[in-house]
Each structure stands twice: as C-alpha cells, then as structure tokens.
C-alpha cells in the first residue's frame, strides 16, 4: 500500500470513528468515551499526514510511533464501548479489526524505517 492509499485509509478510519461517536448514548459514560475515541480515532490520519512530511528518518519514526499509539488507543476505546455495552459488538468488530490492522501496518513501517536507518 502506498502513502496516498494509506492516507485515504486512515481518513476513512477517522470518519467511521466519527459515525460511531455520533451513535453513542448521550449519557455520562457515552460522552466520556465519545470524546476520547473521537480524539484518538481522528488523530490517526492527521498524524500519518504529519509523518509523510517528516524532515528525517528519525522524525518519521517518531511521528509513526504516534500514529501507532493513537490507533491502538482507538482500538482500546472501541473495546470499552463493547464491554460497557454502549453499542453492539457486531457493529464495532470491523472497526476494531481495522484499528488493529493499521497498528500492524504502522509497526511494520517503523521496523522497515529503523532497518534502513541502521
């Protein structure tokens, strides 16, 4: 997958997260999780775009580590939603899988960048 395709994939991930956030109940639990998920989920694509503009390989690795953290945090909040029974697991399973795939791809990219740097 090239950079443009991954930019689009992370953008679509953020948009899907926003749809989930909109579907959450307006209770205290729902609002708390919604804010956390919205920030982490939309941050994935924004930070990937920043990584694409990195000034050095060290800067790229650092920024990609942020993408990894945000995608993993998004998976966490999606799992919280399932366990707290705020939305049906069936609805969130594909998005949790996507978050985990993004994490795996980012880790692979970081590993490759570190190997090339050494």
TrEMBL record:
Domain of life: Bacteria
Entry coiled-coil feature ranges: none
InterPro entries associated with the record: 23S_rRNA-intervening_sequence (IPR012657), 23S_rRNA_IVS_sf (IPR036583)
Gene3D superfamilies (UniProt xref): 23S rRNA-intervening sequence
Pfam families: 23S_rRNA_IVP
SUPFAM superfamilies linked: IVS-encoded protein-like (SSF158446)
Designated name of the protein: Four helix bundle protein
The organism of origin for this protein: Luteolibacter flavescens
